[in-house]
Design brief:
- The complex is a heterodimer of chains A (354) and B (589).
- Chain A has 354 residues and is α+β, with helices and mostly antiparallel strands.
- Chain A has two domains: 157 residues, P-loop containing nucleotide triphosphate hydrolases (Rossmann fold, 3-Layer(aba) Sandwich), CATH 3.40.50.300; 97 residues, Nucleic acid-binding proteins (OB fold (Dihydrolipoamide Acetyltransferase, E2P)), CATH 2.40.50.
- Chain A contains eight helices and 18 strands.
- In chain A, strand 9 and strand 10 form a beta hairpin.
- In chain A, helix 2 packs across helix 3 and helix 2 runs parallel beside helix 4.
- The relative contact order of chain A is 0.12.
- In chain B, helix 15 crosses helix 27, helix 22 packs antiparallel against helix 23 and helix 24 runs antiparallel to helix 27.
- The chains are: A alpha+beta (354), B mainly alpha (589).
- Chains A and B meet through strand 6, helix 2 and helix 4 of A and helix 22 and helix 23 of B.
- Bound molecules: adenosine-5'-diphosphate (ADP) and magnesium ion.
- The site of magnesium ion has 2 residues of chain A, from helix 1.
Amino acid sequence: MRTTPFFSDSSTEGSEISTKLEGITKKFGRLTVFDNLNLEISRGELFSLVGPSGSGKTTLLRIIAGLEIQDSGHVYINSKAVDGLSPPRRNIGMVFQDYALYPNKTVIDNIMSPLIVKNVKRSVARKEAEEMAERLSIGETLARKPAQISGGQQQRVALARALIKKPDVFLLDEPFSNLDAQLRFSARKFLKEVQREFGITTIYVTHDQSEALSISDRVAIMGGGRVHQVGTPREIYEAPSDEFVAMFIGSPPLNVISVQVKGGNSTPITMKLPGVSDGAFRVGIRPEGVTIGRGNNEATVTSLEYAGRETIVYLKVAETEIRSIVFDAGLLKVGQKVKFDVQQSPLVLAREDS
Amino acid sequence: MSVPNIREILSKRIFYIPAVVYLIIFGLLPFGISIYLSAPSSDFASYVRIFQLTNFPRILYNTFVFSVGTAVFSVVIGTVLAILVDSRTHAKRALSLISYLPYMIPFTASALIFATLYNPGYGPIDPILKAIGLPIINWLGSGMDLYSLTITGIWATLPLAFLITLAGLTSVPKQVKEASVVDGMGMWDYYSSEALPLAKGAILTAFLMTMILAFGDFDLPFILGGAGGVPPTTMATLVTFSYAQMFYEGLVSQGLATTMILALIVSIPGLLLVRVTLGGGRKDGGAGRLFHLPSVHFPSLHLPHLPNGPFKYLIYVVSALVFIFILFPIYWMGLLAFRPQALDYVIPPILLPTKIISSIFLTTVTQATPEIITTTAIAIAVTALTIALAAPAAYTIARQGRRALLGIIIYVFSIPSIAFVFGAFYIISRLHLLNTWWALILTEPLFTVPFVIWTMSNFYNSLPKSYEEAALVDGYSPLRSFFQIVMPLARPGLIAAAMVAFIFAWHLLLFPLVMSQTPWNFHFPPVGSNTVTTFAVIFDPDSTGGSVSNNVWVQLAASGIILAVPVIVLSVIAQSYLLKGLYSGGTKG
Ligand SMILES: Nc1ncnc2c1ncn2[C@@H]1O[C@H](COP(=O)(O)OP(=O)(O)O)[C@@H](O)[C@H]1O
Ligand SMILES: [Mg+2]
């Protein structure tokens, strides 16, 4: 792959922030989607908005694009306020959830169309579109209509159409949700490569936390009308800022349980809780941090979920149930008594007795 | 910072301004003229005089019997047929084709055929009644003619009720249907507890539409009432009564006052239709598409329990009888058109084809050539004008959610054409365009534009918005996006709408009757704008005068077939276009 920069950065020299959202509030009738939301997206990064369905990801993306108008607050792109600018004047590229390829136009006409409407000469537009198609490996589909190419190819055409105008920001709304699982993996990798190669600031919306973690430079976790946490995938995974994030990230989800700590010992499950004083706490334990075989705790196996490579084992300790991931569960049986240990330090999420 | 983009704002309005301007000039203005001339001395003497007429209560009564009777029976029969088609897994297409066959026969042709069916002596119904031991009925006699008219109305409008109700039944979610199968529901259980309650909105819409159609209908009562002169009081409706007053008796203000009273009466179902269609404040708007109708919330139906098995057979038996009712007049029309004239006037009438000839049919086609050319040319021009005005307006209504505008459009659609005709006649005569093609090209879109705006706005509602948003992000201006992105996507809908507009224009009888005097003279600019409908009605080779039923039947039937054939062809094509639906691909990988 070529590594020549495709986008000139001259207009925005000196600023590290590409897109800034300041105090965004948006209501649909009585429903408040966000209240005073703030976000900063750095230049050249792949930034994901992730959250459960209905958390306002699409709405936020559409506000950045100018397809939806915020009730209050400001959107800045390259330090310039773009509130009140119509979408075409914001110089953004967008890939829609359903691609929205113009069904009556051929692939090449689809890719060219943003240039044609800017009155770029047809021959020039054509050449650029062909180059772009070549870079995205869809060169052989150019004469066909969108309905005559595969889902993966449609998706690349949508990327090409969005990229050809050299946008300042590239917006994608769940672009892979219509692809099957196999294609989704290669499409993700491809997007990451394209994004790197083009060095383009990308805002990516998904409800799939594992997808967000795997491709993003940084992630914002959205839910309940606000941003819960912004950070690198590692920060989010290892240090969730609250129970919402902790529960949302990781599959199978985090075990969140209540424990009593007294004199360095915890009940009902014994675990290392360095630097925690006495009291009652909500703590989170990653399923992969629970190792079965030996340890200070004893539990009953209540259920086994075979998932191919690993098995999810449900353990019951007193009245508490937790999940563990085991890679070789061949000998475990439901009803069996086992010993287990909590190996990773649990996340202390909240104090319960105050 | 936020630059108000005047061009953008203007280019959005541009979409509906032409349609609104047209409707003001050729709708509001004629209507206003009609109101003005109905009470020229600014007292309401003409209105008072109408109510003093001794036969006026009878005419009001006739109007209600005809309209309400037509609507009730059309909806009941249409619902039975819709249940039949919806419940079948095989032969669905054939059964629905039969059910909407009368829809393809223009009202003018239907009325002409029924006039021959009802003929005392030569009509074919009497021998059938006699054969099954029933008394002979004097169909056009003074006790019976109103009911004969209503039967014709039912025949002509039941397909509309069928189509709308079927759309309601088929819009029941597939899962609901499957769940009912899994639960072992029988046919009555399913329709009474699931499908009909969900299709209530559609059924109500069907009722209102057929009633509005019947209230305003000119063709059937005019032709069955003798196609000229003053119709018999026993079967005159407000429409034919006011027509006779305006154009035969020279009582213009009285006739206009009658049309205004009619408009006021029709406003009730008209406004109800607006309410049902706009569906009590839902945001998606205009759910009342002709092809997928809304489910409206009103008190639930409490249907008595019927056993499933007998219900099924009841539906089958009723449907079979209705099919005979639907098919016989069409068969009779074909029979008359293609047999020697001598076989028409024998007692007892001959019901089976004995000798088939096509020479009279072909002679009639030749005689009607100027009318066929005129009607085709006018219908094409009306279609083009309609699409040009209505498609952009419908788009704005769908995308900008202009529900008030849609409400007004539907209301305009419900106002009978008789309320506009004198004003339009007045405008056209002032423009010195009477008896020219222009007269009809300019005035007929008044009926097609509202209907196409209504149905197209539903079509646009069903188009995914993301194409236009992608176009917007790509930098398309609203106008450019409409012409280059939306219009190509909307092609199936546009073609269907164009065919509907063509059929409408091809059908119309009242306006040509008033604005035209002679057949086309084969010169340009065209003078002479008689249409096939007027040809069929005033065709009278023997100059026997008087009622249509004195015309030569074979030519009557032949002109009926000439009227029907293009409509049948277009309906079939439009249907397949509608079935093809939207383009696949592009969205949802
Ligand atoms: N045009 C709209 N009108 C009314 N409510 C809307 C509209 N668009 C989105 N919503 C509501 O706003 C919330 C956020 O929606 P959305 O941004 O689509 O969430 P996500 O993309 O995270 O699933 C949802 O509750 C949705 O129903
Ligand atoms: Mg979304």
